[in-house]
Amino acid sequence: MSHLRHLGMAAAFAVSSLTLTFTNVQAQTRQETLRIVSGGAINTLDSTLLNATRDSLGLSVNTYDRLVSFTRKQVNGNWVFDLYKLRGELAESFEVSPDGLKITFKLRPGVTFHDGTPVTVEDVKWSLDRAVLAKSGAAPQLASGSLTKPEQFAIVDDRTITVTLEKADQLALANLATHFGRIINRKVALQHATADDPWANDWLKDNIASSGAYIVETFKPGEQVVLKRNDAWKNGIDGKLPFFKRVIIQTVPEAATRANLIERGDADISIDLAANDVIALQQRGKVKVVSNPQINAFTYIAFNTQKPPFDNLKLRQAIAAALPYKDMLDAAIYGRGAPLFGGSWVGTPPTLDFPQALPLKTDPAAAKKLMAESGVAPFKTSISFSTANAGVAEPLSALVKEALAPLGIDVEIRKLPDAQLATVATNKSFDVITETTSAMLPSTDYFFRIFFQGPSRWNLGNWTNQEIVNLAAKARFEPDKATYDTLAKKMIALEAAELPVIPLWQPNQEAVMAKSVGGYTYWYHRQIDIRDLVRE
Amino acid sequence: MSRVVRLIGRRLLSSLPAIFGVVALTFLLMRVLPGDPAVFFASGPNTGQAEIEIVRERMGLNRPMGEQFVLYLRDLGKGDLGNSLTSGQPVAKDLAARLPASLELTIAALVLALSIALPLGFVAAMRPDSLVDQIVRVFCTLGVAVPTFVSGLLLIFLFYYLLGWAPPPVGRIDAFASAPPSWSGFLLVDSLLAGDMETFGAALRQLVLPMTTMALFVMAPLARMARAATLAVTTSDFVRTAEALGLSRPRIMVSYIFRNAMLPILTTVGIVFSTMLGANVLVEKVFAWPGIASYALDALLSSDYAPVQGFVLLIASIFVILNLVIDLLYSLADPRVSVE
After folding, report:
1. What ipTM was assigned to the predicted interfaces of this complex?
2. Which residue of B has its CA nearest to A45?
3. Which residue of A has its CA nearest to B164?
4. What b/e sequence results for A415-454 when a residue is b if at least 16 CB atoms lie within 10 Å of its CB, and e otherwise?
5. pTM of structure
6. What are the DSSP calls for B245-273, one per residue?
7. How close, in Å, is residue A376 to chain B by CA atoms?
């Protein structure tokens, strides 16, 4: 009997110690696991595809390596990427020739792909060739850094590769640091290439062949991606491994649900909560909020300047004077952003940065006067935006409608499905439009190349100003800092004078995370770089 | 037996023209919509006409519309529903993965709704205009008046956020749990087949809130229909006769009232079920449920033709099958009704 009792106690003890280790292991796993919830979806493992979503792009940064990477710096106590200071990622070192026409990369020794094979210069060459030749979004992007032909990428020896440029493009190196410059495991990719698909586009869309910090464990498009750390990764800062061993990225479409998950501690981080939820969460104080004005994005109102009456400068100025900027900022994003109005300068802007606050202020009397001077009779028009953007654009547009009524302008609010908005924006078949857009590489000439010229969707002001075209083209290849300054300021002054686009603000990116999560950095891709994050 | 099989075959065959009509109409409708998918998908900051053409070619939009339709029909014949640019996957694969999620949720919600709404309707009809009847009426009005995303968020707030009883309202299974081997795609069935009670419990817990949200919304039409149908039957001649002949109350209720009231209820159930399957975008969004409705909506917003066409075709086929099933059930409930 006593034997039995002993046995029972021993068994009970064994069971309880087992459960104890089990829960320990579980707690340990949770500690080293990062759970990200996002309203967006990852639809492919190849971020260079034209239909790749922004979330797919964030994933690519964590799963692939590039030759170089931007560094980060502290701004107002937050980590923000530094467009002008780079570090080697797969490259141990890199060097730009004094004339800016040749960039030489030396590969880090002993670096391997996920399959254990070494990363070679042939892989680098093939990947860069692929980026400029294969049908994807990479070619047009890299062209913005003057990278267009495979002949520009040359193997020098088994650790050295050079990139040559016809002109010293300021953004050549920066383009190679973006997710479009990823380095692919050539041997693995080629095993899946076919005659119709020589660059293995089809296979790479759902598979990873890389050396990146994270390995894709499961991929359910539009639903969930599970990553595990690549413990052989040595391309981080000082060769350090990322903190999190496992990462779960889930699509949770409803913002309120995401907010609940973060506050309850079931999810660790989300960067796309609704502004009102962020404020409530912040007040209750159970989570950490890292707010960064999105330095490479801006919200604006654009006029179709080719279409009367918006070709009339006085009319555009009248509208600019009528807009209730502060109220719009408060109503649309609860004041959580950096205003791009209320600048106090005249003539030449104080800095070369763009977007920066333009000298715009609400002045109904001036608006009336300008409207009279414009000679435009009262008219009906419309302001368009996409369904996806409605949370911000709807209150904003309502205030525009209200502010323009006294000028005799009757504004109809047009909320369009995303594809329809893309179509009217590209065909320029709109009157006024409001958008929030971003440029990956926020240098002033790049902004003016994308948003203020040419036939692309994003020249929403439909602006055809030859001076801007010339200035931007010149600035792009201008090595001298002072000259670049002057060119950039001239472009900004022109935009402020002509007002094809009225910049409103740079909305904050509100990264909401568990208090234990640290190291969050605002990146050019506006997604989470998991490699930065730690649990403190 | 072979008569029934022949019957089903004939019914399915006769539904082909309708299905073809749906296919043709959706195909045309998508292309008449003002959004251009090629422009939408090729609208990165540096993309231009060349990239738009790449997408157009991939989607086959560079061909004349007649040719596109013929090619589409040919692909349909091969079981190929095309590719989704939104999800980056073949549409058939997406729908196959997501349909079980939608079906599991819808069936569970319907069973729950029926098990509450039918008794409520019967009770209300047995005592028309009594206090019970009024309470049922108020309850149903409330259910149908509160939009599903409001009731969904309220349930999450109460049972997940405040009380902590419900698991994180994300998808069909806990993020840290592992899914059972997939046989049917229904997690509840698969986990039972695998004998994995832990996963069964996890899946069931995930299901409770979205299922309740949906059930609350559809209970009203079901309860009202049950009440009206029962009321009509209780006042009919044959019930009065049965009562006059002194049949027992339970016998009258089960064999005469209940059975006859089932006919209109069955019709309503059929309609409610197919509506729930296709129209529960909000519940799917709130609970991050990977179903077909939110899939179709996302595709529609980006004018992604193939997934929308595939979705409509799927729903149309489900309608056909469902109608057939309802008709067969009809003949069981009422021998006078013949499917032919």
Report:
1. 0.87
2. B88
3. A264
4. bbbbbbbbbbbbebebbbbbbbbbbbbbbbbbbbbbbbbb
5. 0.90
6. TT--HHHIIIIIIIHHHHHHHHHHHHHHH
7. 31
